[in-house]
Amino acid sequence: MAQIENSSGSSRQPLVSPAADATARGRWRALVLTDPIHKLVRNAAHAGVDDEEYDLRQLAMAAVDLTVASMGFAREATLEEVVDTLADLAGRMQPGEEHAPQARDVAQIVVKGLLNDAHDQRRFSYTYADLADPGAVRFDNYSFRLLSLRDTEYGPVLVASDQAVMLFLDGLDVDIEDAEAALAHVLQRQLDDERFDAAVRTAGLAERTSLAMSATLTDLLDSTSRDVRSHDWLVDVPERLGRARKHVAGRIAEDDKTLDHVQSGLDGDVSAAVRAASGEIVDLLRRAKRIHLDLHDRLVGAREVFLTAQVRQRLARRRRLRLLAIGEELFTPALTLPADAATAVVETFADRALGVHVPRLARLDDMVDLLWAPPRQREAPEPDVEDPGADDLTEDVQRYPEAVLRAARTVLDVTRTAPARLSALLHAAAAVDPGTVDGAVDDVVELVLLSALWAFAPDLPTDDDEQTGEVDLLAAGLSAADDGTVLTHRLARGADLLVTAHIPGQPATQTPAQTPAQSSTHSTAELAAAVPAEGGRR
Amino acid sequence: MTLAQLDLTDAGSASQLIGFGLTRGARPVDGSDYRALLDRYRTDLRFKDTVDTIAEGLGLEVLGTPRTGLVLAPDPTGPFATRLADLKTMDAEEKLVFGLILVALAAYAYPNEGDLDDPETKLIDVVKVDDFIRGAIGGLAAIDAPDGSTGERARTAADVYADMPSLIPTQQGRRKLGCTLRAIELVCGWLVEQGAAREAKSLGPDTFQLTDRFRLLVGDSAGSEALEVLRDARQAEVSA
Known about the structure:
- The structure holds 2 protein chains of 2 kinds.
- Chain A is built from 18 helices and 10 strands.
- Chain A has helices at 2-7, 18-46, 56-69, 79-93, 100-115, 162-168, 176-192, 196-226, 236-267, 272-313, 326-336, 339-353, 364-372, 402-413, 422-430, 441-456, 469-475, 516-521, and strands at residues 124-130, 138-144, 147-152, 155-160, 420-421, 478-481, 486-488, 492-495, 498-501, 526-527.
- In chain A, strands 5-9-6 form a 3-stranded antiparallel β-sheet.
- In chain A, helix 16 (441-456) packs across helix 17 (469-475).
- Chain B has 2 domains: 3-74, no CATH class; 84-239, no CATH class.
- In chain B, the strands form 2 sheets. Chain B has a 3-stranded antiparallel β-sheet with strand order 3-5-4. A two-stranded antiparallel ribbon of chain B has the order 1-2.
């Protein structure tokens, strides 16, 4: 300190005193840890619970005690159990009949306060003003939980945070092995002194500490079989196993001795109270012995678990080199990133890890088409009896304007009297007065061409293709034949088809071009890129 | 290969195999067409090339052929891409939590690179995964800031997750939206839908089995891509 004061005369004055500053932060923490309880007492007044009627602080302490008492056991304290017990305690604070309904409310207020329920069970958060730098003040955030909920197979259970344990149960913060040895001595002394109540309590504690050791070992083996590197099996774990083995061996011998001692004590002339307490101790010690034996079994199998896991994980044949240990290289670094950057990382991961998504809904434009199209009415197609010139065929035609359809139909009407060449039909179509079809002469030409192609190679698809609608209606009753003449037109080239309208009742059997063999050897008129390939499916 | 050399029946078979790969629930049982095509993919190099090429054209990549079938990874811009944000309406924090859970699932199930080649089925458990993530966050606090303070740092991903409570029960005793256990449940549900996991009801109500599909997607696609983004983010952080 002297050095600091000498180095610069103006700055680095201790805030209060050097000794006080050194521990200020730690003491501040211990102080704020109790603050949630004061807060819950204050807030309880709003809920109509009087501080003078119920000792809420004691209830809060009891809640932590109850929670800690069963942490790490196979069956931990459920929310329901803790609230019930607290309600009983609260009931004893105000024994009157009229107070009975309030006891449960009081218990709930205490548990909710410890869970920080008022703030969505988030962590309690307090700000520490760090004045170490004389020029500026720095505010540090300190967040902690006291109790939190965890889900188990028998419902939500309460878990106490390290801070809660440290603060409320500081006296239990001792080395497990040493505690066992000490407890054994204490028990011995208590039995000699006939202080049985205390003896029962300490025997209970001894059992719990043994359970905790067993649970720790189970966790260790679990994570080892998942990931060999999760624990240091070179130095740390063997040492722990060695300690545990020694401990089990010692405990079993010692427990037997204590059992002998207690039982031999019972042979003498003892009071009923001592007899009952001794009975409990005997039960406890027997249970503890079973736990020790169980722990022993695990210890014997531990190295085997490690070796199996090692063979499976570390010596497994590598098929590909990826250089990716997800936990160390991706997960941990992502946790330390600022929220925005981390979101980008995990989203990239998620989008790819979720795999293939096959679109199952119709796309929007499909849906709109489906919704707007008039209901279809072509239950049974009867192409032979349709008259290409009929006027009542327009309801299924959506693509081409009515005027274009009419013009195309007029052009195709020629074929009712005599077969016409496709080239002639195209010419006739091109010569249509633009005024009658809103200038869409090209559409007329296209429609005539498509109808001829359809007549040559009727495309009878099994699926109801929308686009063939107007074309097959116009081409119904038409047939076309390829006699080898070559067509050259700006929209199409290939065979100059001979188009005929067949009169109902007279089947068009004389058209040789309908056989598949012929249509595949001759190249049907190929459409230029401007025209959808309606007839070109073959 | 040129078009002239490509047999059209081969193209048909190749496309059929990709179709099987895209169909949820299609399994290459003995004697099925799928199995025959899969065997052909494994043994016939020309056929494999055809399948790979067609898949590439569709915006897919063949990651592997474990016993459960063809595993395809989508091109993120292609028609088969899955986006996390499309699965559920979520705000920025939720998206981060869901994403973190997916990464954590992979980290939990495949801690080493060797595990990504190990066909053994991995089991995950909703509660254990939550413990795993919170444990990792607790470990960070010890390394980063031994005094437990976050100081003036920006809110990190760990803070966002740690601030969300682990469990908020509903009246019916189920888990309510807004707690991390529910989020893990949802993510596992998505994985089941995507064929990346199976429910393992016999082993417990919250237990799921991860499939080979998830393993390959993580190992060969998601992991390295996310690592790229992570590297960029850290570079930006250092240079800032």
